[in-house]
Design brief:
The complex is a heterodimer of chains A (102) and B (305).
Chain A (H helix, E strand, L loop, with lengths): L2 H4 L1 E9 L2 E9 L1 E5 L4 H12 L5 E4 L4 H11 L6 E4 L2 E4 L3 H8 L2
Chain B lengths: L4 E7 L3 H12 L4 E5 L23 H13 L4 E4 L2 E6 L4 E5 L3 E9 L3 E3 L15 E2 L2 H4 L7 E5 L3 H11 L4 E5 L9 H9 L3 E4 L4 E7 L2 E11 L2 E5 L2 E4 L3 E3 L30 E3 L11 H19 L2
Parallel strand pairs in B: 1-2, 1-6, 2-3, 6-17, 8-15, 9-10, 9-15, 10-11
Antiparallel strand pairs in B: 4-5, 5-6, 7-16, 12-13, 13-14
The chains are: A alpha+beta (102), B alpha/beta (305).
Chain lengths: 102, 305
């Protein structure tokens, strides 16, 4: 996969007193997840609700992705989100919002 | 300072909180529900088989349905962590990292967190061999050996989830017989991968680098105090998340659960509580939901005085 494809455009919108403010930024976002993982679903729902694009790697199906996640996060729990190198373990909504500037 | 003064602020957006929100909205109270993440601990349940109306539903689906029911009414949901609560002139101020909210009364539905073992190795291997949620992290133990610590119904269900992935699952329990619901106890007993070690505590989680290799028991099992394994799932109960109530002088019991009467009232006027954070003796989704609706009714009666 070309590296450029990994550079994703995030477009989120926040309604402020009737007006709509559009936040545009460029960040590479990878999430590590697995099927039937409830907090992975919460994380994905949150990103989709905020129109944040991401690459999803299934650590159950992709052994290389699992090792990559363990190397990045230093642990085995899922989900993990990597926002331009900032790695957040679990679905920590406040921390993710802060990192994305939402 | 907050512009809007809510009639009711519900702190905690698990199923109890959302049940309170449904009733609060139906009483036409201006309602805010605020908490870290919708669903709460029900999200960790693979299947809920004892919630009336649903023969079997995943915890996250049940939580989402109850949330969607609540948000179909005219309420405000804020998914963010509450950091403090204090009294103000007309009621209460609820502070989050982002903004403050003002309300005339409060319903605490803050739930619980997993209780820790507090033994050597637990913190060192946290998230990396030591876990609290089989549904979340069990999948990484495909073909390996794990242990569930605890003997409750929840521990039995977690062991069953782990048996779908792991080669071998020990249940290590300090008591003589696991306390699972009979239906789940039978499932555990019939499962060839699960082995129960009774009347035993674990005293240390051991390993090399970031890899768990074994646990130490307080007595021998099959000739050894050491059991080789790859992961430990701790399921020894929960601790109530009630520290936010301290600033208000809300009375807690010896377990630090919020003391309420049968109407969900605490000792502080205008402060109510529901669900797993209270001292109610049986913590189930259905009982939490009932407490939520009761607390909302009490809040309604309090406000209309």
């Amino acid at each position: 996969m070309a590296w450029q494809i990994l550079v994703l455009v995030i477009i989120g919108s926040i309604e402020l007193t009737g007006a709509t403010r559009v936040i545009t930024m460029e960040k590479k976002i990878i999430i590590y997840s697995a099927d039937n993982c409830p907090w992975c679903r919460k994380l994905k729902d949150f990103l989709l609700d905020n129109s944040v694009e991401f690459i999803e790697k299934n650590v159950n199906l992709d052994h290389e992705a699992a090792n990559e996640m363990i190397t990045k996060s230093g642990q085995q729990g899922i989900p993990v989100i990597d926002i331009d190198g900032k790695v957040i373990v679990g679905f920590n909504r406040d921390a993710i919002e802060q990192e994305l500037g939402l | 300072m907050a512009d809007v003064i809510y009639d009711v602020i519900i702190i905690g957006c698990g199923v109890s909180g959302f049940a309170a929100a449904i009733y609060s909205a139906r009483f036409k109270l201006n309602t805010l529900i605020v908490g870290k993440v919708s669903g709460g601990t029900i999200n960790n349940a693979k299947e809920v088989e004892n919630y009336p109306g649903f023969k079997s539903i995943s915890g996250i689906d049940l939580g989402d349905r109850i949330r969607d029911h609540a948000t179909s009414y005219d309420i405000t949901l804020k998914e963010t962590e509450v950091i403090s609560v204090e009294k103000n002139k007309g009621g209460f101020t609820v502070r989050t990292k982002k903004e403050d909210f003002s309300g005339r009364c409060l319903i605490f539905a803050t739930g619980t967190a997993h209780r820790k073992l507090k033994i050597p190795g637990e913190e060192r291997f946290h998230g990396n061999g030591v876990h609290a949620c089989a549904l979340c992290d069990g999948i990484t133990y495909k073909g390996r050996t794990v242990a569930i610590i605890g003997g409750s119904d929840s521990a039995a269900r977690e062991a069953l989830i782990l048996s779908e992935h792991a080669r071998k699952v020990y249940i290590i329990y300090r008591g003589n017989d696991i306390r699972a619901e009979p239906i789940n106890k039978k499932r555990v007993e019939d499962n060839q991968k699960i082995e129960i070690i009774r009347n035993t505590n674990i005293t240390e989680i051991m390993g090399k680098g970031r890899v768990v290799e074994s646990v130490m028991l307080d007595k021998e099992y099959k000739g050894s105090k050491v059991i080789a394994l790859d992961g430990v799932f701790v399921n020894i109960g929960h601790v109530p998340l009630t520290s936010l109530t301290h600033s208000l002088g809300v009375k807690l019991n010896e377990k630090k659960e919020i003391m309420t009467d049968t109407e969900g009232k605490t000792n502080v006027a205008g402060v109510f509580a529901a669900g797993d954070c209270t001292g109610f003796f049986w913590k189930q989704a259905i009982t939490g939901v009932a407490q939520g609706c009761t607390a909302a009714y009490s809040a309604y009666n309090f406000l209309k005085r």
